[in-house]
Amino acid sequence: MSELVLEVRDLVTTFPANGQRVSVVDRVDLRVERGRVLALVGESGCGKSMTALSILRLVPRPGRIEGGSVRLEGRELLALSVPEMRRLRGHDVAMIFQEPMTSLNPVHTVGSQVVEAIRLHERVSVAEARRRTVELFDRARIPDPEARFAAYPHELSGGMKQRVMVAMSLATRPKLLIADEPTTALDVTIQAQILELLRELQQQFGMAVLLITHDLGIVNELADRVAVMYAGQLVEEGGLVEVLRGARHPYTQGLLRAMPALGRRGEPLAEIPGVVPSPEDWPKGCRFASRCPRVLPVCHDVDPEATRLSPSHTTRCHAVAREEAE
Amino acid sequence: MPSHVASNLVVLAILTALVAAGLGVRRSRFWREAARSLARRRPLALGVVALLATIALLDSISWVGGGAGAGASGDVVSLHKPRSVIDRMFPADFQERSYSAPLAVTEFYGGTPLRYPRRHLLGTDILGRDVLHLTLKGTRVAFLIGGLTSAIVIPLALAFGISAGYFGGRWDDFVFFLMSTLASMPSLLLLIALIMALGRGPLQVCAALGVTSWVGFCRVTRGETLKLRELDYVQAARALGVSEARIILRHVLPNLTHLVVITFVLLFSGLVLSEAILSWLGIGIDGSWGQMIDQARDELSRDPIIWWNLGAASVALFTLILAVNLVGDAVRDILDPRTLRERL
Amino acid sequence: MLAYLVRRTLYGLVTVLGVLAFLFGLFFLYAQPEDVARRAVGEKAPQEVVEQWLVNHGYDKPRFWNPEDPLDTMLVEHFRRMLTFDFGRSDADDVPIARRLREGVGPSLALTVPLFAMGLVIAMGLSLLVAFFRETYIDRTGVILCVLAMSVSILIYILGGQYLIGKLLRWFPISGFDPSADVVARFLALPWIVGLMNGVGADVRFYRTVFVEETNSDYVRTARAKGAGDARIMVRHVLRNALIPILTNVVVAIPFLFTGSILLESFFGIPGLGSITVDAINANDFATLRVMVYIGALLFILGQILTDVAYTLVDPRVRLE
User: Fold this and answer.
1) B282 contacts in C (CB within 8 Å)?
2) Residue B180 near residue C15 (C-beta atoms within 8 A)
3) CA distance A148 to C75
4) What residues of chain C lie within 8 A of the CB of B326, using their CB?
5) Which among A215, B31, B202, B217 is most buried, taking Cβ atoms within 10 Å?
6) Is pLDDT of B341 > 70?
7) Does the ipTM surpass 0.90?
8) Rounded-to-5 percentages of helix, strand, coil across chain B
9) Which residues, other chains included, contact B227 with Cβ-Cβ below 8 Å and sequence gap of 6+?
């Protein structure tokens, strides 16, 4: 049993809509172990990014974390004071964002932004921080790191900017790395390079990684465990093989069928009928009920509880629960 | 044609345009929702603007004779002058000899009994005119400034901006040069110079205001047209051989409508405030609130002070500008696609 | 960079020529110098007096074409005099306009420079404050106050300020000017207060929009995720980026400090360039008015070039080519 780095329980984050607060993150549980990669999967708008921002307590106003627990190596983050939380961000938990184009400050050199990340948490001289930055750039496979140090973000390509982001996030050897769609905005060939880099550095540094993506191909490449999210809730969670090969939740099954695979050429791709309901329209029962091929009468009224399928595999579905009970 | 007949015809034209615009708004889903959302967000400001606009319109409808007849003094001179609906709400000779305080019985200086004791709700000015009446009539001038100037600016700016942006080349260079030339002169100085050269009068003032506010709107129109011209469906229409005039009318102009609305509302308060400054410099429009303030500037140094004249004009000016500013902000938030994107 | 500046200046020069052509059209073609002369010497004056006045002021030449000397026309004369800063004499009282300008620029600067500096500091401070508390009631109250302040005409600020501060509270003199260093601030205090009140609403609202837009950007989220604190984020990240749009507003205004403030000067009796302009309006002094517009345009064009240069200093993405 390896040690648990991140443990999220019953996390609830709400936003105001039409005069009431809706839970865009609804009772989410996540566990990431040291040296492991948990992939959080779902369509855009399902609450993946909001879950990540909630872990760092960076939910933008007027959003609010309502309850639950976020523990990093046993320490409750939701109970930390603001300065304590600030010291933890970037030091123990680092985050990489989707848009390398806009995630770096355009008026500062990329080098100085990494130096800032180091010096916010460690009392080292500028020269020392600079030396470490160049070294990090080198490890992030940035060619000619000395020269790139003084470059401004607009002078670098998207892939190169994302390498800078990776270098910056690793600057203080965090225990947990949250990567929010780190390759979505990049070209396919660049995507592969960045993923390779992430995998390599993750193994070198032995970090726990929470990887947020909608791309099951990336999940297959990098993840050890998979959590599938739909409309703010986790619908299925399990080991990589358990979920990708033995998915039980109708939504996960739909997602997998919608993914093109090299081995299935010529077969039509399946699609999930309908669209994700927007937060204001979430039903009181199962949120997937309106699109579910296996919908039961109970689904419209009662929100399903998690069903344990194996020690490491759970899902939240009335139909599956009924099957298991029989 | 007597000027009051022309004014009545203009009112008719404005009402027709309003009805047409209303029907247009009802037909389009986008505009219907925008109107609804505006009414929901700024009901009070919208109501104030509508009320003042109604007063301005009522004050523009006038005819000769009828109505009040001889007043308390038996004065019949005013019967031969056209009087507006607003004028007819007051007696024809509703005038004293000089200052009187609100609802006073006697004149402010001297104590002579008034012709209409306790009837001047906001008192009278130095010439004995009823301040409430003057303030109500100022509304028409304010809307005249905003409306007439916009009527000059918007078509011109659209014509120059669209043609420059769409056709480019030498013509665009020329329009750009024209804009930078006009923009480089400080607007108040340019306004003053224009009015000095053109002469004084409502039309001249509005034309001068038109020249100074033309540039900003033209620049926006040109920029937007440049963007629209590159859009796929415009390119596709060109590839299909649709005529330029048709592309402009069908694809470019309709996509500028929201800009026209935003600019009109945002321009309005600036124009009214500029006119007040011109009045202060002695080159404004007769009967405006700015002129009332200008005439009242010495009254504050009298002892005891005369505040009702200045107060009425200031409050009226402030109310209109505030209401228009609030409506303008809401209109921009609702119609500007950039803010729309942010909210999604 | 140098090549850019040269080209930019050349285009500025073309614009100056455009302004001069516009002024010629306005004051020599649309409004006739004869009318000015009539007004100056009186409606009933004999024709000879009018002619004499025109000769004295250099308005007696043919407008476009002189068969004897093609260069001796009003058009050429107008351009030559303006471009060489030979402004001649006032139409109203024969005082050299250049002397007027030299006398007026001091009081104007004494009024506008401190007003500009104070306005900038106050507006930036207040807008940072409301932007920091964005989406709270402090922010909402601040924005409403700004719209209220913007909706009051400057005339009301002037009259209200004079009445309240000058007459009732008697803190500062109601109007007047004395250039000696120890009392000058006393005379300028009231116009400063009025000027600040008049400008602060619109400025705070504009800066706030800029700050809030920057605060919502992705790089601020990155900085937060790095563990940077609010103060650091505001100063190092937000302020630095917000400077770029704010700069346009600020640098372009600097040259106008020289032309003073027409309204404040005329009403508070400060003998600056603004007062000269108002006197020119009242005296139908077209010559002075022309010069004021011309100088205003020159300063504006200068301001724009300055803005472009300032851009390169704060925004690494801008390269002048």
Assistant:
1) 281-282
2) yes
3) 58
4) 147
5) B217
6) no
7) no
8) 70, 5, 25
9) none
